[in-house]
Amino acid sequence: MANLNKVFLIGNLTRDPELKYVPSGAAVTDISIAVNRSFTKKDGEKGEETLFVKVVIWGKQAESSAKYLSKGRPVFIEGRLRTNSWEDKDGQKRNAMEVVAERVQFLGTPQGSSNTAPMPSEEKSSPVPEIQIDEKEEKKPDKSEEDEVPF
After folding, report:
1. Which residues, in sequence order, are bridge partners of residue 46?
2. Is 119 exposed, middle or buried (0-12, 13-18, 19+ CB in 10 A)?
3. What are the tens digits of pLDDT across the range 9-52?
4. Of 60, 100, 108, 151, which has the fewest CB atoms closer than 10 Å, so is most exposed?
């Protein structure tokens, strides 16, 4: 059976990002976003609910997020779900679901900013590899292929 663990969220930051470094030196930022959902009830009345989601961002994306994001700023998150388990001070086992970001895209403009310079709209942990095409290997269509109509 196939498995898929993928999350796409758009929401607003509920607080400023918290940048930390783990002992290995890797950057990690925790953010919390509010995701709103509008719906219509059975009786036709409009309803709205807000879901608060904890998001963990690692590496270069964590540093950029801490630098450019602030409370209230809209953000797009692509990532995966993870469950944290721990024992609280009373010995009770606790669980919490969070999103581990694989891609963070800043939306809108920073609050209080009159600067028209573009903000980095997307940060990725690893660069996209460039594809080199050898012109000699590029297939040239035959004369017969050019004259044929595909329908």
Report:
1. 40
2. middle
3. 999 999 999 999 999 999 999 999 999 999 999 999 999 999 99
4. 151
